[in-house]
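User: two proteins, same treatment. go.

Assistant:
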Amino acid sequence: MFDRRLAGIATGVTVALLAIARYLVERMGPSGWSWPVLMLCVLAAAAAGRGLLGVRAVDGEQEGRPSRGFRAGVWLLLVGAATVPNLHGLGIGFLADDFGLLRAARMAEGPLDAARLTPLTIFHRPVCQVVWWLGLQLWQGAPLGYHLFSLLLHAGNTALVYLLARRYMGSVYGGAMAGLLFAVHPVHVEATLWAAAQPDLLCTAFSLSSMWCVEQYLSAGGGRQRYVAVGGALAAFLLALWSKETGVALLGVVFVRLALAPGGRRWARAVGVSAGYALALGVYLGVRFLMLGEHWMGRHGTELNAWNAVFPSTSLLLTSEFFFPVHRDLFASLLSPYLLVAAMAAMAVGLLWWIRGLHFVSWQRVVLYGSYLLGPTIPVSTAGLLIGADMANSRYGYLPSVGLALLFGEMCARRGGGWRQSRVVGVVTVACAAMLSVWYVAPWRQAAGLRDDVLSAGVRVVERLPESPPPSTVFFK
């Protein structure tokens, strides 16, 4: 039976761990995490798993098929949630790396030439480079076109999260809540508003498409259908790798999904399909070596820096940012610091409310959601990159947040109590996340204003130069 006492203790420990993770890492840095801290995290996760999963061997009941009108309403809601909160950021224009990517695209003589270019010596992302080249052909390189394309990608990723969540949980409501929170989450502001962050959007799109093909493989009846599904999955995997390097994590997610799927010959399926993914990964690494030469592993080397220190802190911080998405610099500059504490306390109470009423969650799905989170954080850990107090680098949390969105959908679908109360709190949670996303666009609009001021000052300087100026250079930082 479900152990409510242990669930309550585990819930309190888990929420407290998430709330203090950011404080610990900011005070001590990544090196402050050591084996004792890692073991503490493992024990807390084990206690939470035991308390929340119970001992039942059967899963929750599957929902009936909803009406066509209801499904159409869910799709409209998902698309609107993914686009509307970001509409007031369409006028931001180009910032930072955008100018370098646009210049590289202008140097290309065609799509194949664009795919061969390496604007930065440590990156080989031909899909993104071709996208920027196509932007020159379709909308003459106007920033609005790239921003609209980013919104389209984000909406497509939201749809894929919904489809996968509905398949995993057997719940339209749980899938819809997972998709809605993914659509409006504040951690995604950087990825959806900054044109140079399109690699994260594209990598996620192809990664989720590959996982959807894996689902078609599992449900296929005949051998031909399975071969087609596997072929599509491998093609999407290669495109994910050629969009951004974090796509390599998909190999582990696919293995976990196939190994834990119901039915016979699970391990044979998992090993066979994963071998195909490994072969595709080998092709990618070979092409990368030919293109980048000695820089094929990037500037960070092949070993994690202090593996036991950086890896757990990165995963925990991403989890903390997902459930406590607080732009601390913005709170401190525009609002009272006490409001920051109040906001985090309210988020902690909300998370506690969601977890406390859970009935039963399949441990196989919890492991699957964890693989979505942990896999993409390994490359991020290698680089030693963390989300800052100003939400900088939050684009690195775009792909891993899929697993956390799935976990939130699971909490919505499996929570007991009053049906109406759960729905109301779910809507309020998504609405609060959407309002935070809208608010977090403000620094990006300020950055666009600073860019315009700097460029205007540069134009005035050039206009005042004599007709035969002395050999000199004007620098802008």
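Protein 2:
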Amino acid sequence: MDDAIVVVENMYRRWAMDGEISDSTSIDAVREVGNPTILATFTVIAALLPMGMVRGMMGPYMEPIPALGSVAMMYSLFAAFSFTPYLALRFKPTMDSLQKMENAEHKTVKRLDGFYRRILTPLIDNKVTGNIFLVSLFIVFFLCCSLFYFKVVKVKMMPLDNKTVFNVVINFPEGTSLPITANLTRQFAEEVRKVPEVTAIQSYVGTASPYDFNGLVRHYYLR
């Protein structure tokens, strides 16, 4: 929704400045935010795409994010420049309501401006206070990083699925008959039973086995 919000807000701003709602003003308002909106959209896509290069076990988990996110961003950009201006003109507010919204926003901005000035002015004008604040930022940053080193906060990429059960998927050549598959699976299970840590075995032939989170991502339910 970000791209559409930028377009609509600038259209409202121009309408309030000109004191009227016109097609020419609306088109020029969209033009004003066109280049930065396009640049911002492609910047987000560029930040997402490297996640699609992840390989190994994390690959199937990461790939949908850049793929779907990039498509969504492109569609958002297209909608912001095509549907949004038309709908904004189709359901445009009255100038009175637009003026009321502008006054309300001005009051909010004025309150925030006073709040930030009370905080930032001493940091900018007083060198000692500013340096103390800067040093405290570094201290807090390294304290936060130390949480990982001392294992106060655990970092892990994979979902927490620490179970004593694991799946072994046997890949037979395509077209292998069901009896041959069942026979070889039984032989494989007998070999696995010789492993000391194995206490029980369930084999599934001709149907999908119960799958965990990893199997959900890897589509084991289709095997």
